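ok, trying the design again with the full structure, not the truncated one.
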């Protein structure tokens, strides 16, 4: 009988404050969709780091004749065969080095034409203007400084470059975007909490007579509070379900089909359905607990039941 009464009161409260309930559902849905999206973004960045950091190379660019005339690092002239052999020998002795690949001037010119053949500069370049290089795969990408300190400034070496630095800038940008999404999410959560508190207060005020009667007949505080708490929880769960639908649709239409980023950007290893499905129970749990706790606090503070 008591459970039936609580359920009937939940229905009455939701219908009586339909507009505010709708606002709560929408704000919870949007905030939790952003919450889930930010978690997936964090997973995406971590996955990309693991994928790309494992593939980055450290490049040792060697001096050519053009560099000898214009670059202070190559003031002693173009790299000699003896210097190249010594660099390769030293690399082979370093414990942090996993693999070394040599790229000649002709190979560098071919790769440049493949990547930038349409640029005006490509037509004016010749193979002898390109730089020979050693492309080094490290066992630990974080050990770049070991290579840089060993070969920067050496005769015949124009520069030592770490591709990880380029990726760091990309991941830093993605991190800022993720922080911005979390900031918007936090604002939406605050809005949702305020709407929940106001909805509970309005609902309780509209039923103050019933509450007074229940107090007179000795109803417990929890029994009086339960319908209001469950109203907020039900609205929150509906919003949570909508947020889960948003995430699933985003994965389906943006990543897998429709826009199909996974096919159009094959170099990026996107998170899959496993990552999405893991987040859904968390979103539903938050969608239930957050409104329920907000309603409980609002009732304790404003109704003194």
């Amino acid at each position: 009988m008591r459970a039936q009464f609580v359920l009937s009161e939940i229905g009455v409260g939701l219908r009586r404050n339909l507009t505010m309930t709708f606002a709560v559902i929408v704000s919870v849905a949007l905030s939790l969709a952003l919450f889930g999206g930010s978690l997936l973004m964090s997973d995406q960045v971590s996955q990309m780091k693991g994928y790309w950091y494992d593939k980055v190379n450290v490049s040792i660019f060697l001096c050519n004749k053009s560099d000898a005339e214009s670059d202070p690092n190559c003031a002693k002239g173009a790299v000699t065969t003896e210097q190249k052999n010594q660099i390769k020998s030293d690399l082979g002795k370093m414990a942090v080095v996993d693999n070394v690949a040599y790229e000649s001037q002709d190979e560098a010119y071919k790769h440049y034409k493949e990547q930038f053949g349409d640029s005006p500069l490509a037509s004016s370049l010749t193979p002898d203007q390109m730089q020979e290089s050693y492309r080094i795969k490290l066992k630990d990408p974080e050990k770049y400084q070991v290579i840089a300190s060993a070969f920067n400034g050496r005769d015949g070496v124009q520069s030592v470059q770490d591709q990880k630095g380029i990726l760091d800038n990309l991941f830093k940008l993605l991190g800022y975007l993720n922080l911005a999404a979390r900031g918007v999410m936090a604002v939406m959560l605050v809005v949702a909490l305020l709407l929940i508190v106001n909805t509970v207060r309005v609902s309780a005020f509209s039923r103050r007579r019933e509450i007074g009667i229940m107090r007179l007949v000795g109803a417990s505080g929890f029994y009086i509070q339960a319908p209001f708490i469950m109203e907020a929880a039900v609205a929150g769960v509906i919003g949570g379900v909508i947020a889960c639908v948003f995430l699933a649709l985003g994965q389906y239409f943006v990543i897998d089909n429709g826009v199909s980023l996974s096919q159009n950007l094959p170099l990026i290893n996107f998170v899959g359905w496993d990552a999405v499905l893991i987040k859904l129970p968390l979103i539903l749990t938050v969608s239930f607990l957050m409104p329920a706790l907000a309603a409980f606090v609002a009732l304790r503070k404003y109704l003194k039941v």
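Keeping the full-length input from now on. The chain has a mean pLDDT of 78.
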